[in-house]
Amino acid sequence: MPIRPARHPLLALALMLLAPATLPAAEPTYRDDIAPILESRCLLCHSGEQAPLGLRLDSLEHLLAGSQRGPVVQSGNPADSELIKRLKGTSQPRMPLTGPPFLDDREIALFETWIAGGLAPGAPGKAETAVAATPSTPKPGEAVNYSHIEAILGRRCAKCHSPSGLMGPPPEGYLLTSYAEALAFGERARIVPGSAEASEVVRRIRGQALPRMPLDGPPFLDEEEIALIVAWIDQGARDAQGQPAIVPVGARVRLHGRLDGRWQLDGLPLRVNAATRLDKSPQVGDYVQVRGRLSGDGMINVERLRPR
């Protein structure tokens, strides 16, 4: 028989007092609440031996160890914890560097409550978060795709080339926090799918173009990392699913390097014609700037060439 609502207010109050109390929400723990957020938003950069400033966030032990500058969490004191300051943007650059979107208010509040509550590790026996964001290595015969080079860009390049990087706005507006942004060619193409030699990004990380990148080097990218990025571009700058990028025919390019032959930039053939503007009589051996556009056959139609 269904229970009808009590009509008398005193009876209604009594029924409310007799109802079971709502249990308070469980306090957040590292393993249940914090680790999954770190894994999805932070391990791209903060894992492995090359984590920025040695700050690894791939285990509770590493998180508590902090960075080369000291602890990033202070038990019971979220307001003075560097981790919270970075997540909120009161310390720059704001984290994660791939933001926006950054962590939302609910996620940040979860970190604050966890720190205020004493950094509870969670129930024993539960697995630590997996180290999932270190650079993956292509299998033999597998084409290099964005997932193989994403962590390199995240650790070494996005610290500046992000919306709120170490230099403030990204240099020249160029972002390296996602596949689409890296391949963008609105102002000019920095990555030319199928041609690493014509890609400004490659010339910068090799030091063929100055200043060499990343700007906080040395150390710069090592030979293995550079070779992986070169292979990725030469094989079509594929996305994480393996789909090659479309060559942006007609896009502007701006390259720096050394003329090592007549109309050849560090071995890259250039298409120079009567319409090309040649400033200050560039000679073989000169360090030059080349401005031009990508043609349908993959060549660069040079519009301007000048010594720098």
UniProtKB/TrEMBL annotation:
Signal sequence, start to end: 1-25
Pfam families linked to this entry: PSCyt1
Matching SUPFAM superfamilies: Cytochrome c
GO molecular function, one term: metal ion binding
Cytochrome c domain boundaries: 136-237
Keywords annotated in UniProt: Heme, Iron, Metal-binding, Signal
Protein name per UniProt: Cytochrome c domain-containing protein
